[in-house]
Amino acid sequence: MSEKIAFLGLGNLGAPIAESLIGSGFDVTVWNRTFSKAQPLAELGAKIVENAIDAITPGALVFSVLADDAVLKEVFSPELVKKIGKNGVHISMSTISPDTSRQLSKIHDEYEAIYVAAPIFARPEAVRAGIGNICFSGNADAKERIKPVLQTFVKGIFDFGDDPGAANVIKLAGNFMIAASLEMMSEAFTMAEKNGISRQSIYEMLTQTLFAAPIFQNYGRIVAQHGYDTVAFGLPLGLKDVNLTLQTASKVNVPMPMADLVRNRLISAIGKGRSHLDWSALALGASDDAGL
Q1: Which has fewest Cβ within 10 Å: 13, 42, 80, 238?
Q2: In 10 A of CB 131, how many CB atoms?
Q3: At a CB cut-off of 8 Å and minimum separation 6, what does 121 contact?
Q4: 82 included as an active-site residue
């Protein structure tokens, strides 16, 4: 593959994406704040650097999968963006505020670099299976350039136009809908359980019939089995995303009462010492309320 890639951020989602790019034959240089997390990528053929800016090749592609808005702004300093330079494309895959994407896009414009928002809908196992989906927005030419690269590790790519914040709005909407679905399933499964029906049996029936969709099938299995110890996306990150959703809605005067509910579930779960669990553990709130 001809594109050189810098990959910044090797968390639960970033690492399998980087692995997939290496496996597809790209020349990949990786950076992560915790240096040891990059070592498995070196064994697969990636170059490792200790400073983010050293991963950048001017005019090439830069992927980032970083925790939140603050970290993304810190890493993509004017100095680093300047090195990306003319015709270089930053593909930002983090779940962040639409306003942060718009601000970063303007900074990139100042140095003739290009910013594309491309958040991904996928848990790590979906990335490894190549069945995730990406929504992206930003410069049209840059999107055409990066599309073949994205197609090496996702199933679907959905274009939301030139506004660099648009894809982030979609990502927040999607994550909110997942959280709301978790709450819905937790309430339904808990009601069944208190009526003497196993959580597994209601899960199996409903996800083969009325709710035969990946979100209900995959997250429903976790809720039915209380399988929250396998962490693909932690509770604090879930709370961050729901907070961003409510902030984005508030700016355009959209009330989201269900988002308020799941936000409180997440806060309650963290307050009960469950920060080490997957964000799907918000579903424990219904069991708590029911005395289970």
Answers
A1: 42
A2: 14
A3: 132, 133, 134, 135, 171, 174
A4: no
Question: What local confidence, expressed as pLDDT, does residue 23 receive?
Answer: 94
CB atoms within 10 A of CB 71: 16
Q: What's the chain's length in residues? A: 292
**Dihedral sign of CA atoms 219, 225, 226, 227 in order:** negative
| pTM: predicted TM-score of the whole model, two decimal places | 0.95
Catalytic choice (82, 83, 171, 240) = 171
The phi-psi region of residue 145 (left if phi > 0; otherwise alpha if psi is between -120 and 50; otherwise beta) is alpha
Q: Dump pLDDT digits (tens) for 138-186.
A: 999 999 999 999 999 999 999 999 999 999 999 999 999 999 999 999 9
Closest CA to 90 of 112, 67, 120: 112
Q: How far apart are CA 178 and CA 156, in angstroms?
A: 18
* CA distances for 257 relative to 20, 183, 260, 286, angstroms: 39, 13, 5, 17
Q: How far apart are CA 10 and CA 31, in angstroms?
A: 7
Strand partners, 136: 159
Nearest CA among 266, 262, 283, 278 for reference residue 188: 283
CB 269 within 8 A of CB 285: yes
Beta-bridge partners for 47 = 29
Asked if residues 31 and 54 have their Cβ atoms less than 8 Å apart, the reply is yes
Q: Based on DSSP, count helices (H) and strands (E) in the chain, helices before strands.
A: 13, 9
What letter does residue 185 receive in the DSSP assignment?
H
